[in-house]
């Protein structure tokens, strides 16, 4: 489509403005995490790392951070495991219900999370499972496993069926084929899914709030602090969370687009 | 020689491998489907002394429909969601167009990552970022003051506007991505043909691009509508006490009243409200495909 | 030494969704034979190959490899090895690991495996390529690695599923030559599936022509070319001119247009509707007045089309309403519109049954290679 330079200019300006809108507040948080002033406002009082020091010396923060990290790793591993086995099963499943199955497994992402959180709270109560990181782990896997399935499945579909036939022909059993032939070739998808699911679990708030009991995750802790107003330590926490999340997400994106 | 394997394995190879689906399916059935069934059941019970009773009753639903507080919250949520969807779409569509038609291919991935990455980071933290920016002494007010546009700080925080901003900010990346994907899938040859037949930029847009993207567009709108209606984070962090949304009332019922049956009933009502609007929206999806030969996905 | 039958298919049948893809097919392959299964797409040749390999189980019938009934055995338990159409090389493994995969499955010890891999690599002319990855190789090289991967296991039979399809014409011709050389030098039994008749004719000791799930004819390339038993076989293997008519009880052919001819009948004598097939290279076009008298059959004709193909020229003439094609080496002085005399030796013309509108294929009969 031939475009006038004027149109192009307008387009780029719009893009830049949109970027400012999307990234601006985040940059503000990062910037103010270094501001001496308690009130996260201008004029700039001075550069400091004290909020970071405060963050690392706060027991509650460290504790909830530890919970979130451990939770993220467990969720990630479980989601990837379920996603991989699911993708492998889908690969060999000959049925017209395949599409319906995939749609159904994705559906948790469209269900209102407040509803899901409450439903899980009631469910765990019913089966007498006490609220803890375990219940959060279970709940997070419900959302992240389908996502892992989608990502890993996309990767797995690029592997031609003749690979398994060749391995079979050369004497490999079912398990050997999966480990020696399919798994290595699916690895980029698996790693991308692992990083993404970790990030989602690490950042997730509302479901965790419903089912975490006394084992606060980091977002739950942050929420309790926000209720009482502005706190500069949150800027530091927020910056740290952003850095972790964006790094992992970018690596995952790069891995996904590699060899596409 | 190669190790011998049972003949049975040979015949049913494809069916047996479907067993790999069991772990995922089992998890989803136990921890997704069953809780959903439970919540429906719970909405018809009552809670006495922090214990669920077993008798069937409609009192929760009756209480909800009788209480004006809930109707108001429903209205607030609905208006908010519609407003958010409209604004997000109006911002996202041109943004996606710019990415597809103006930004050169090499830079697209870069900008896409920049726009999408925030979606995968903590929503709560992002809401808090707006919390800082929109406060009476926040960046926005300071900016407006220094530009001489206002004398007194404008109260944005703790209002519906702040909630709207927070939600739009949250949903913009995903809507942009949806529209971007839809636009990218339009065969560029169609645009060339339209051009060749005399359609300029604006006409190409209305007669070719818009109808062909209608399917994906409506899908995106439906998706963010659900997210907007059911959202708790932005209203709780940025909104005020006067315009409380429905999800906040659900959380109240859980946190302060410890009335799980009521909360369950509220949740079901919310889902029904969301569903009704989606039904209406989906009618538009089909209109797009029949009249204009659009994608109608 | 008694002949060794390496592959024996007995009344093998396979159905998919009500359609019979392979119909009571029987086949024997002797040790050391290069057999090609040739046919149009959908004829069941790949299904047959996969049944030999064990990827598909027949609904009826039995498969024997070197005398042993393997019908219910999976590929990993059979002494067959398949070279796939897309080679199916494991991209995450080196060339050496690829070739050694089967050996690893058989738990062959490292030193011995390494030796065998080296030998396999030199056999396909790629010695020293062990450390490379498949993505670093060209199409032809990948093809050879796939070959080496199968051959290193010393299989009784090597199965090849249109392995040269993805290669450029130049490389393909070279590979055909090398494959044949390899097969001969190893004395290995090859079962090769292809839809390219030229390829099959070039490399094979025996050709099985399949259609509609059945083998229509099996024989050496010369046999099937010069003595086709059915119209399909005659028309599939190269060009031929066909004239419709009747075959009489005494074995002569009669048509309204060409009169009576004493052609050749391959196979069982019959009487009824028939088609006379003549290969272009057996027809002579001469200018009117310069007839050849040594041929028993001669008729006037007019040239309708002239196609110069470089190596040879094809002339298509109208003779009493029939379209006859003649092939001449190099250029021809004849032009469109020329009036010529067409002649051929009737013994070079084959009479085959006319299949009519519906086309019943030959089935159920044992065919030996």
From TrEMBL, chain A:
The chain crosses the membrane at residues 12-34, 69-90, 102-124, 136-156, 177-200, 206-226, 233-255. It is found in: Cell membrane. Residues 65-252 form the ABC transmembrane type-1 domain. It is a multi-pass membrane protein. The keyword Phosphoprotein does not apply. The keyword Membrane applies. Keywords: Cell membrane, Membrane, Transmembrane, Transmembrane helix, Transport. It comes from the Bacteria. Belongs to the binding-protein-dependent transport system permease family. CysTW subfamily. This is ABC transporter permease. The lineage of its organism: Bacteria, Bacillati, Bacillota, Clostridia, Eubacteriales.
TrEMBL record, chain C:
It comes from the Bacteria. Residues 7-237 form the ABC transporter domain. The keyword rRNA processing does not apply. The keyword Nucleotide-binding applies. One of its GO terms (molecular function) is ATP binding. It holds the Pfam family ABC_tran. PROSITE patterns: ABC_TRANSPORTER_1 (PS00211), ABC_TRANSPORTER_2 (PS50893). Keywords: ATP-binding, Nucleotide-binding, Transport. PANTHER family: SPERMIDINE/PUTRESCINE IMPORT ATP-BINDING PROTEIN POTA (PTHR42781), SPERMIDINE_PUTRESCINE IMPORT ATP-BINDING PROTEIN POTA (PTHR42781:SF4). This is ABC transporter ATP-binding protein. It comes from Yanshouia hominis.
């Amino acid at each position: 489509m031939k475009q006038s330079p004027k149109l192009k200019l307008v387009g780029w300006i719009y893009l830049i403005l949109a970027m400012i809108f999307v990234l601006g507040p985040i940059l503000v948080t990062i910037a103010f995490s270094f501001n001496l002033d308690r009130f996260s406002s201008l004029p700039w009082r001075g550069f400091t790392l004290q909020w970071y020091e405060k963050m690392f010396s706060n027991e509650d923060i460290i504790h909830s951070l530890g919970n979130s990290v451990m939770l993220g790793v467990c969720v990630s591993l479980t989601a990837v495991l379920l996603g991989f086995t699911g993708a492998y099963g889908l690969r060999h499943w000959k049925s017209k219900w395949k599409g319906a199955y995939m749609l159904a497994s994705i559906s948790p992402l469209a269900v209102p999370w407040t509803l899901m959180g409450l439903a899980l709270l009631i469910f765990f109560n019913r089966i007498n499972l006490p609220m803890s990181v375990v219940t959060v782990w279970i709940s997070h896997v419900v959302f992240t496993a389908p996502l892992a399935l989608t990502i890993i499945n996309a990767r797995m579909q690029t592997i031609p069926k003749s690979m398994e036939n060749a391995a079979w022909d050369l004497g490999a059993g079912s398990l050997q084929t999966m480990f020696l032939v399919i798994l290595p070739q699916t690895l980029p998808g698996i790693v991308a899914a692992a990083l993404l699911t970790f990030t989602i679990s690490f950042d997730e708030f509302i479901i965790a709030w419903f089912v975490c009991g006394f084992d606060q995750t980091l977002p739950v802790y942050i929420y309790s602090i926000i209720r009482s107003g502005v706190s500069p330590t949150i800027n530091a926490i927020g910056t740290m969370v952003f850095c972790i999340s964006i790094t992992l997400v970018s690596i995952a994106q790069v891995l996904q687009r590699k060899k596409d | 020689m190669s190790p011998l394997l049972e003949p049975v394995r040979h015949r049913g190879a494809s069916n047996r491998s479907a067993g790999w689906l069991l772990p995922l399916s089992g998890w989803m059935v136990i921890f997704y489907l069953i809780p959903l069934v439970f919540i429906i059941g719970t909405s018809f019970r009552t809670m006495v002394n922090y214990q669920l009773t077993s008798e069937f009753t409609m009192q929760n639903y009756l209480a909800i429909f009788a209480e004006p507080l809930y109707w108001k919250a429903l209205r607030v949520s609905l208006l908010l969601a519609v407003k958010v969807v409209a604004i997000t779409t109006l911002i996202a569509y041109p943004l996606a167009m710019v990415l597809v038609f103006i930004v050169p291919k090499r830079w697209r991935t870069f900008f896409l990552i920049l726009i999408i990455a925030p979606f995968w980071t903590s929503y709560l933290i992002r809401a808090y970022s707006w919390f800082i920016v929109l406060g009476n002494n926040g960046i926005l007010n300071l900016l407006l003051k220094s530009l001489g546009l206002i004398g007194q700080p404008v109260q944005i925080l703790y209002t519906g506007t702040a909630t709207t901003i927070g939600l739009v900010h949250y949903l913009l990346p995903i809507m942009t991505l949806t529209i971007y994907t839809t636009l990218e899938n339009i065969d560029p040859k169609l645009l060339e043909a339209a051009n060749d037949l005399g359609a300029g930029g604006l006409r190409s847009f209305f007669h070719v691009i818009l109808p062909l993207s209608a399917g994906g567009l409506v899908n995106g709108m439906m998706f963010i509508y659900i997210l907007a209606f059911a959202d708790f984070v932005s209203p709780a962090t940025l909104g005020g006490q006067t315009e409380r949304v429905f999800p906040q009332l659900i959380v109240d019922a859980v946190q302060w009243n410890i009335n799980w049956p009521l909360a369950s009933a509220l949740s079901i009502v919310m889902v029904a409200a969301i569903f009704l609007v989606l039904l209406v929206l989906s009618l538009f999806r089909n209109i797009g495909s029949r009249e204009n030969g659009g994608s109608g996905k | 030494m008694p002949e060794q039958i390496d592959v024996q298919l007995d009344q093998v049948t396979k159905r998919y969704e009500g359609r019979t893809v392979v119909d009571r097919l029987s086949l024997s392959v002797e040790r050391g034979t290069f057999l090609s299964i040739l046919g149009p797409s959908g004829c069941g040749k790949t299904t047959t190959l996969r049944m030999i390999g064990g990827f598909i189980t027949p609904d009826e019938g039995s498969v024997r490899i070197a005398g042993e009934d393997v019908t219910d055995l999976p590929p990993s338990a059979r002494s067959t090895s398949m070279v796939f159409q897309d080679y199916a090389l494991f991209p995450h493994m080196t060339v050496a690991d690829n070739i050694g995969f089967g050996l690893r499955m058989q738990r062959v010890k490292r030193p011995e495996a390494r030796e065998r891999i080296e030998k396999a690599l030199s056999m396909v002319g790629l010695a020293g390529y062990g450390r490379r990855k498949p993505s670093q190789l060209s199409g032809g090289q990948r093809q050879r690695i796939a070959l080496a991967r199968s051959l290193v296991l010393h299989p009784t039979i090597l199965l090849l599923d249109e392995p040269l399809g993805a290669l450029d014409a130049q490389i393909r011709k070279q590979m055909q030559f090398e494959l044949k050389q390899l097969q001969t030098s190893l004395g290995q039994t090859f079962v090769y599936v292809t839809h390219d008749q030229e390829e099959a004719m070039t490399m094979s000791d025996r050709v099985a022509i399949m259609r509609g799930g059945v083998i229509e004819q099996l024989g050496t390339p010369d046999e099937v070319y010069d003595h086709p038993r059915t119209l399909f076989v005659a028309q599939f293997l190269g060009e031929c001119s066909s004239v419709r008519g009747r075959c009489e009880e005494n074995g002569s052919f009669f048509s309204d247009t060409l009169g009576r001819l004493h052609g050749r009948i391959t196979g069982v004598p019959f009487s009824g509707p028939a088609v006379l097939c003549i290969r272009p290279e057996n027809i002579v076009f001469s200018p009117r007045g310069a007839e050849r008298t040594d041929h028993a059959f001669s008729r006037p004709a007019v040239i309708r089309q002239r196609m110069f193909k470089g190596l040879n020229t094809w002339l298509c003439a109208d003779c009493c309403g029939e379209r006859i094609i003649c092939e001449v080496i190099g250029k021809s002085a004849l032009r469109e519109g020329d009036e010529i005399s067409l002649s051929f030796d009737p013994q070079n013309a084959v009479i085959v049954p006319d299949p009519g509108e519906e086309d019943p294929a030959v089935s159920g009969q044992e065919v030996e290679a």
